[in-house]
């Protein structure tokens, strides 16, 4: 697994991921109409900064609510959830494609 791939690789368009996401992030945080209006309508500079911080917190909420528990379960229960062998996966959860759907149950029961 390499970070840099050739230009014609279909796995990950790294040029689009690096340059395109940078432009999109700059557009969102600097020129998005809702954020700009929130800053312009604020009474003080502290209120405008607090509005931006609240917007950032709401945008990162799915990361903390969805992705972080899944990755925690994958680290804690690597022998069960992150099975690489098809035969081993079918013994644990009965599926050959992986046992990712039991991550949150294991985190609730054993965590």
Automatic annotation (TrEMBL):
Tell me what this protein is called: Uncharacterized protein
One GO CC term on file:
plasma membrane
Question: GO terms for molecular function, please?
Answer: D-glucose:sodium symporter activity
Quick check: keyword Transmembrane in the entry? yes
How does the protein's chain sit in the membrane according to the entry? Answer: Multi-pass membrane protein
Q: Does the keyword Calcium apply?
A: no
Membrane-spanning segments: 12-30, 50-67
Q: Which UniProt keywords apply?
A: Membrane, Transmembrane, Transmembrane helix
State the compartments where it is located. Membrane
Q: Name one Pfam family in it.
A: SSF
Q: Which family does it belong to?
A: Belongs to the sodium:solute symporter (SSF) (TC 2.A.21) family.
């Amino acid at each position: 697994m390499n970070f840099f791939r050739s230009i014609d690789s279909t796995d990950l368009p790294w040029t689009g991921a690096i340059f395109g996401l940078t432009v999109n992030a700059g557009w969102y945080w600097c020129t998005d109409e809702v954020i700009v209006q929130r800053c312009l309508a604020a009474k003080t500079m502290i209120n405008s900064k607090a509005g931006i911080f609240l917007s950032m917190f709401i945008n990162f909420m799915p990361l903390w609510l969805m992705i972080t528990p899944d990755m925690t379960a994958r680290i804690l229960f690597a022998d069960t959830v992150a099975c690489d062998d098809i035969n081993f996966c079918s013994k644990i959860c009965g599926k050959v494609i992986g046992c990712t759907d039991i991550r949150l149950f294991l985190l609730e029961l054993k965590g």
